[in-house]
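INFO batch 0412 | record 1 of 1 | parsing
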Amino acid sequence: MVRRSSSATCPQLPLVTILLFIWVFSWGHVMAYPDIANMTALQKHASFFDRNKDGIITPSESFEGYVAIGCDVEFSRETASSVHAALGPKTSPVDAPLPHINIYIDQIHKAMHGSDTGAYDANGRFVPPKFEEIFIKHAKVRPDALTSLEVEELILANRDPLDPQSWGGPVKEWGLSYKLSSDKDGFLHKDSIRGIYDGSEFIKLEEKRRSSRSEM
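INFO prediction complete | emitting tokens
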């Protein structure tokens, strides 16, 4: 029996049709964005969760990122779902494929919320004076770190009374930061907080988790 070649059993599509299919299914997944040196601090923060570095964060990538920094599976799943439901529509270009659940790093500044410290400007750039204010105003036990009570005070002090919908974001963000990065004495150090703003702390947390797993 003569075996037919695989090409003989497949319909021959016009080249234009093939290219169209490739464009439809790959658009939004091969988006280029500025190299890390030219990113804003907020883009660097978000890019940790862009596990394949294509400029777009999918829910599964966020899940993987949360697990990588030490969150449990259930928390990672629930947080990834809620984050993408909230930020996907805000950062997706109007012509992005539906549903708008992916987060686009080049538009991440559009997802910024109120009641924050002001350490990011409107474009997601880091603002050193505002960052220093965190410790000038709230670091009372140590000048270079925050206790859990000081973190709570920081959150309350920055609440916008005219925007109560923005109150929940800082509670979750600072709560997670404190849980993952505070030391054994209960201090969340200045360099760790700075690293959270630009994402470098996430890399350290992932490396720490990977190292501890390899030693088991």
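INFO post-check: The longest strand covers residues 56-57.
INFO record closed
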